[in-house]
Amino acid sequence: QVQLVPSGGGSVQAGGSLRLSCAVLGYDHPIYCMAWFRQAPGKEREGVATFDVDGSTTYADSVKGRFTISLDNAKTTLYLQMNSLKPEDTAMYYCATAWAQCRVGLAYPYWGQGTQVTVSA
């Protein structure tokens, strides 16, 4: 049973930084696509960034140049480094994974519990 355990959320002032982590437990073969999503109150969930099995990454336009997604060498922990945070980045952040290469519309069967990020002006 795959489990995703996130950590690292919190409150920060605009312009600050946070790093989210997502530990991947219980998998028995390499994971293909890993991703971060976020959902702000009253808004739909949106994709933030993806990390594919070949190491390629994608980012939402709203976070390009500010956020960096990475995977540790052991491929057991996914990170999201968030710099130059803005109030509009305030949301619940979720990590997710799938046994398929990343693509638009991919269904992610495994999700972590959300971790709250709050950015004050």
Tally of extended strands?
Answer: 11
Please count the helical segments: 0
Helix content: under 10%
Tell me, what's the shape?
globular
Low-confidence stretches: none
Computed CA radius of gyration, to the nearest angstrom? 14 Å
What is the averaged pLDDT score?
A: 94
| Distance, first to last CA | 40 Å
Largest sheet: 7 strands, mixed
- What proportion of the residues form beta strands (DSSP E)? over 45%
Give me the strand/helix succession.
EEEEEEEEEEE
Oligomeric state: single chain
**Helix/sheet category:** mainly beta
Short overview:
It is built from no helices and eleven strands.
Report what the structure shows.
- Strand 5 (46-51) and strand 6 (57-59) form a beta hairpin.
- It is built from no helices and eleven strands.
- It is globular and about 45 Å long.
- The strands form two sheets. Strands 2, 4, 5, 6, 9, 10 and 11 form a seven-stranded mixed β-sheet that branches. A four-stranded antiparallel β-sheet has the order 1-3-8-7, with no helix packed on it.
- The chain is mostly beta strands.
- It has strands at 3-7, 10-13, 18-25, 33-39, 46-51, 57-59, 67-71, 77-82, 91-98, 110-111, 115-120.
Chain-wise SSE layout:
Layout: E1 3-7, E2 10-13, E3 18-25, E4 33-39, E5 46-51, E6 57-59, E7 67-71, E8 77-82, E9 91-98, E10 110-111, E11 115-120
Parallel strand pairs: 2-11
Antiparallel strand pairs: 1-3, 3-8, 4-5, 4-9, 5-6, 7-8, 9-10, 9-11
